[in-house]
Every structure is written in structure tokens, then in C-alpha cells.
Design goal:
The protein is an alpha/beta fold. Helix content is 28%, strand content 16%. It has four helices and six strands. The protein has a six-stranded parallel beta sheet with strand order 2-1-3-4-5-6, with helices on both faces.
Length: 206
Amino acid sequence: MSDPTTRRTLVLDPASTATASTITTRLKSAGYDVDTHAVFAEPTGPVDGFVYEPGLLDGTPAPNSAERLLTVASRLTPFLRPAEEGGSRIVIVASRDSLGWPSRPELAAQSGALISAARSLALQLGRTGTTVNVVSALPPEGSRLRAAGRPENTHLYEPTALTPQPVTVEDIAETVAFFLDPRSGYITGQVLNCCGGASLLSSLSV
């Protein structure tokens, strides 16, 4: 019989990314019971957390990411913990491209749509005790997006962190773990930039 105190989390990873793999490893190390799926299947019991990582940071996004998020969230709703049991946590991994980037308008559009969908889900699910938040990150160290160079006909280069160290998949995983933690249960509908301060710079001043 499973331990009823174990937090059960689904990580949906349709793009099979390094980011999702690192998130899964981080959550397992913290004692989460993690199910990882590329294709959604209905869970067999209550779900304490749901992480959606559609591949925007690796440059291989799943098609119709926001629509897929809404579909999965609707199907998961009956399995989310009620408020009297502490509610559940939904975390979406998006890209800072939602602020705009000339060579990736499709990724920017998908990321912006995910943020809008997340905020709407937060409004929809708030009274049920479920929180919905977004981790908006730079493409992490090792992503092929970081080596793409200067977009044609611009003076711009891929934004870099202002901090001494670059953003890594481990940084993103830690930020996801923060939102999943029961102690973050009063935060919902928010976008947290995991970018080492790069979001302080606009697309036109990088």
C-alpha cells in the first residue's frame, strides 16, 4: 500500500526534454512519487502536482501547447486534491520569449498563450485550492537555442543572465519545486522569471 503522505506528481513531457528529465530527478530526490508521460493517461488516484513542460526551452515545442494544457487540466480536475486536503499544484514551464524575440515568433506566441491559459486556470481553480503558476525561463545552458547566434538583420544576441553563472536546467527544476511545495500554496496565477535577471532587459536593449 502506498504511503498516503507521499505527494504524487505527474510530469507531462510531450517533447522529451532535458528540462523535464531534470525536473523529474529533482522531485524524486525530494520524495515525490513522480509519473512521467509524453502522452496523457488518466491517473489512478489523487494528483498533488502537475508539471507541464512542452519543450519551448529546447526549441522542440509540442504543437498547440496551450490547447493541450487546457485539455489535460480539464481531464485532471476530478483527480486534484480538494481545498480541505491542501489542494494541488499546477506548474507550467514557459519561455522568456513571451517578451518577444525576433528569430522565434512561434515560440514567443506559444509561451504567451501558455501564460494566458495559466492565469485563466488560476482564476478557474482558485476556490478549489489548486494553484497554477508559470516558470518562465531563458533557454538553459546546453539548449541549442543558445547557440543560434544573432538573428538576421538585427543587432541582438541571445539574452544572457546578469548573474555570474548561466541559467541551467537544475535552476529551472528548483523553481518548479518551489511552486509545488505546500508552503507555496498561497501563490497562484503568477509568472516567475528564472533568467538570472535577463528579464530586466527588454528585447530591444539586449
